[in-house]
Write a structure and sequence with these properties.
Number of strands: 10
CATH superfamily of the largest domain: HUPs
Distance between the termini: 64 Å
Oligomer: single chain
CATH class of the largest domain: Alpha Beta
Strand content: 5-15%
Helix content: 40-55%
Bound molecules: Fe4 H S5, zinc ion
CATH architecture of the largest domain: 3-Layer(aba) Sandwich
Order of helices and strands: EEHEHEHEHHHEHHEEHHHHEEH
Shape: globular
Length: 313
């Protein structure tokens, strides 16, 4: 197959775009499309101070790479979860993030959950109902809180994440299967800042995962290829597989599902403002917004973890 732009040998064929490109033209296309998405979806301004949530995986490192190449001002944030599956998953992902930043002279902020909170995510999960069986709920709560706090304290304008269209379409499918109206309402490529919350944006939300993977590969970015051990059997992977099966039969179906949702959302009025309207209290411990009570979910959960851990000795 030949590159549609120059006729050289193509390295990727994007069937949903009917576009095959060689290495050079793909990298240029990918960078241009990222910029186009940022501008088209009004994700952030050219002079924004950006914090990139970095996991050590391909998407977040590719995002940091492409934004830096576009001359955006970005720092990275890595959160050490303390996951050791016998192959030191967290330590190895941290090493990839540090290597990436070090080689490019970029600033990486690291927060180690165990050092900051007194227990790693898997250990803490044993002390809380949120962690019953799997630590993912506690992990999500903790990462969201730390990312928000670091971004606000550091004076950043926006927190960006490497979510791609496969991630977004799988989330959409999960939310639709269960008609989670509140989550459907809030699923968007950009969540504007509001009292106590940093603006969040997903510059890769229009790329398929194989495109971000191709970018990382062609740019020779070294990243952790292993998935988090707790993601095995995750519903999101199940939905991704289903969507990929449909995509094989009908190229572009995944894109159509997700982008049509974004379009339809503009025409739908949600009556689900309960959650937002009640986030008007302030946590007495950390000062972040909360929806009632004296503490936010993060502080009350971690306080319980610390109390139980001390009780056990
Ligand atoms: S939530 Fe769960 Fe992920 Fe945290 S413990 Fe791993 S799989 S990293 S997106
Ligand atoms: Zn709090």
């Amino acid at each position: 197959m030949k590159c549609r732009k120059c006729g050289k040998k193509a390295v990727i064929n994007m069937r949903q775009h009917k576009l095959a490109l060689c290495e050079e033209d793909f990298l240029a296309w990918f960078t241009k499309q990222t910029l186009h998405t940022i501008q088209r979806d009004s994700l952030f301004e050219a002079d924004a101070k950006i914090l990139v949530a970095v996991s050590g995986g391909k998407d977040s490192l590719a995002l940091w790479d492409v934004l830096t190449g576009l001359d955006y001002s970005c720092d990275g944030l890595y959160i050490g979860l303390g996951i050791d599956d016998g192959q030191a998953y967290s330590d190895r992902s941290c090493a990839y993030a540090q290597k990436f930043a070090g080689e490019r002279n970029l600033h990486l902020i690291t927060v180690d959950v165990e050092r900051a909170q007194g227990a790693s995510i898997p250990e803490a999960a044993r002390f809380t109902p949120r962690g019953a069986g799997k630590p993912c709920s506690l992990c999500g709560l903790t990462r969201r809180h730390i990312m928000n706090r670091v971004a606000l304290e550091g004076g950043y304008d926006v927190l960006v994440t490497g979510h791609n269209m496969d991630d977004e379409a799988a989330t959409l499918m999960g939310n639709t299967m269960n008609w989670l109206v509140g989550y459907l309402e809030s699923q968007a490529p950009m969540l504007p800042e509001k009292r106590g919350f940093i603006r969040k944006a997903k510059p890769f939300h229009r790329f398929y995962e194989r495109e971000t993977a191709a970018y990382a590969f062609l740019r020779e970015i070294e990243y952790i290829q292993q998935e988090c051990p707790y993601s095995v059997d995750a519903k999101s992977i199940y939905y991704k597989n289903i969507l990929n099966q449909i995509e094989t039969d009908r190229p572009g179906a995944k894109q159509g599902f997700y982008l049509s949702f974004l379009q339809a959302k503009d025409q739908i009025t949600f009556n689900h403002h309960k959650e937002r309207a009640t986030l008007d209290q302030t946590c007495v411990t950390c000062g972040q917004p909360t929806r009632g009570g004296t503490q936010c979910a993060f502080c009350s959960t971690w306080e319980r973890v610390q109390t139980r851990k001390e009780a056990i000795g």
